[in-house]
Amino acid sequence: MESPSTAAEPRDVLPYYKELDSVDRVQAESLLTFVKAVIADSHTRIARLSQYQIVDIHSSNHYLFVQHPREVAAAMRTFLVRLRPRPSSNWRTIRRCAPGWSSWDAPR
Fold it and tell me: Is residue 94 part of a domain?
């Protein structure tokens, strides 16, 4: 995992950063400092919880699943593998708990 202090680059927060004049860049740097602090705080709080994993994907925004589909898919697969039911799961019990299931709904 990358250091939270380097987790946000100007292009990640403001894609038009290169187009800003010097006055606007000062404001942009202030915003970037704030965003980096929020990211660092979030990383610190989440890192305390062992069941969570932080995945940093840079050069993206809220549409990171469109911009970086392979990285997102890999992270999701890693997460979902941990949620798989164990082979010893009792499907009959699950079926009884889920009204409307028929016997062919349970895996064989």
Answer: no
CB atoms within 10 A of CB 4: 19
**Dihedral sign of CA atoms 20, 17, 5, 37 in order:** positive
- Tell me the two tokens of residue 29: 């740097």
Does residue 99 carry a pLDDT above 60?
no
Domain count, the chain: 1
- CB burial class (10 A; 0-12, 13-18, 19+) of residue 65? middle
Mean pLDDT of the chain: 77
Query: Per the domain annotation, does 108 fall within a domain?
Result: no
Angle at 58 between CA 54 and CA 60, to 5 degrees: 110
Report the alpha-carbon distance of residue 102 to residue 88 in Å, rounded: 20
pTM of the model: 0.55
Residue 105 domain flag: no
Q: Which residue has the tokens 């740097």?
A: 29
Instruction: Look at the chain and count its residues.
Output: 108
Residue with tokens 């800003």: 20
Please tell me the distance from the alpha carbon of residue 88 to that of residue 72, in angstroms, as a whole number.
30
